[in-house]
Amino acid sequence: MSYKKIKGSYSFLTIPMILIMGMVIGWPLIQTFIFSFTDADLLGIGEPNFVGLNNFLNAFQNRGFLNSLRISGIFAVVVVSVEVILGTSVALLVNQPLIGSKVVRVFLILPWAVPTIVNAIMWRLIYNPEYGALNSLLYQLGMIDKYISWLSSADKALWSIIFADIWKNFSLVTLIVLASLQSLPESQIEAAKIDGANSWQRFFYITMPHIIPSLQVAMVLRIIEAVKVFDIIYVMTKGGPANKTRTGSIFIYQEAFTNSRIGAGSSFAIIMVAFIMILILFYMRTLSQQKR
Amino acid sequence: MRKNFVLSFLVVCILLTLFASTVLAEEEIELRFLGMAQAAYSEQNVNDMTADFMKDHPNIKVSTEFVPYEELRNKTMLAYGSSNSYDAALVDDIWFAEYAAKDMLLDITADIPQEYKDGVLAGAWNVTTKNGKILGVPWFLDTMYLFYNKDMLSQAGFEDTPKSIEEMVEMAKVLKEKGIVEYPFVFSMAQAEALICVYANFLEAYGQSFQDAEGNYILQDSGVETLEFLVSLMDEGLLNPNSLEFLEEDVRRVFSSGDAAFTLNWAYMYALAKDPAESSLAPEAVGIMTLPGKEGIKEHAAMSGSMGLGVLSKSAHPKEALEYILYLSSKGVQDTYSNLQLPVWTASYDDPQIAAGREDMVAAAKQAFSIMNVRPSEPNYQEASAILQKNIQSALYGDVAAKDALVSAVEEINQIK
After folding, report:
1. Which residues of A touch B253 (CB under 8 A)?
2. Which of A180, B6, B222, B261 could cross-link with A214 by S-S, CB 3.0 to 4.6 Å?
3. Mean pLDDT on B191-195
4. Least CB-CB distance to B245: which of A129, A257, A258?
């Protein structure tokens, strides 16, 4: 029996999984899509009225929503850029046969393995303006003359969260790039050395082209995560101070669950999903190019 | 004969078994209660009260859940909107109007025992009554009291407590000048309802209000002076700048560490600030009073932060849920667990045992309850509050002038009304 025939005759086995996925992912998405065209209330009081595209039109005129998208954009661009540069640099470093590099590789997994909520609580304690470790360290090093309020300062709060997020997630990029570096044949490097290529040339003409596909995958994964960031911000600042860290996801949560406007909240969510979908398509394209 | 006896015996046994199983199966009722994991009664207190209730009601099993204040309303509403509503929940005074508008709470007007109607502080029923219907049982009356560090004041040469806002600020300036404390004031002013509570108490001290008689927000006129006052505390270095990040528990820790001379907080802080395990202050150094008013306007001010217990209208066991919340707010239980929270029963205030060791707090509470005002109680308060929080913080950061911040806030609130 050919592989195609076997595959065809057993494909019914995937039906339960398709049903489960449809229930837990598909149905909520469809409901959100339907809600986005209505003025539905969170508690389901009364029949929701169909409002056409009003929610979407209002979304693009809502200063709060547009500002939250701007903050999401800043967060994503900064976080992903730094993580890619830092993650790649660290991967290149620990790929070297240095003493202790294997131990470092193990420890690199730790920040990424820490649950986001735990990470957020930990950094909130580190940033505490009264007894936080960061203030203590900087003070003892003579870098500050009095303790700083990191999370209540309008101009520092977002950057403080960005730093905490980078600390947690740069190791994911490191691990992906490191895996790619491990598959780089040593013979290519040796050949380049024999041909007289210096270390920069070896990096740009051999190492870099080899790790770029993996780096693209890591980047797209991180962009998607960074654009829809919610938990770390919710735990650390809840979008404050004065809405300076209110990202798109926090705004949607407040609209749908605090203000009870599930219809409007759904339309904002659909806009975010559309944006993230574009990124996912880019991700799929990257993957398919990698296969080729 | 013997056969008949055995048969009869078997029938009796079967009947007894059936009867016993019916009785045993007699509904084990499960109730779900949602409470608050901060301030007022502690989780341990509530769980102990609940355990005692279950001992008295073996057929009722109560599961308690606790969330921070900031999550309490959303979780209650989300559960109510789903098919798994709580049976009873703790409700802040500012949420009763919203819950009433959405028919979330059971009308228990006819089910309140007379002893509760007569015995509970009259003002407390105002918190849980909307449109003439009693929607909850008062659980605690509270306000933000002014806590002060007696040792610091006496070091600075002050033997009396401040009689007005102005006098309090003067004291703070002296404390700072003498180097007794870097920031005499610390308040809970994070972007949360705590900020509005602090602002509301000072607004009250300035003799002003959120709304006019028709319910229109008038803070762009009435609230500017109060906000300018708070901004000036920040500008003059009298208010701990970290206040903009603090909630009540942070404030408690700062005050209890001896890093502030004055703060506003709920009654629960009194016992904890005096507890050597929780505070580095000498118990006798902790002072409490109602917030003094602005000179020439009023002597004292207090804004309600009271809460009640309600039965959710989707509860499958409303009778038992009501029984449970009546038990939690009964005089005996409230007197027993009055360590962190004063009871809502009038008679408790005449009980020397309740006041023992905290006469100053009971005196402050009596005064506060007699003058206490309330924040706006209307269906969209939560959204209005969020708008105010953002704009008030913008003014405190110096991004905008106090007047502009409140004009902008009122404009935004008018759009959602």
Report:
1. 130
2. A180
3. 93
4. A129
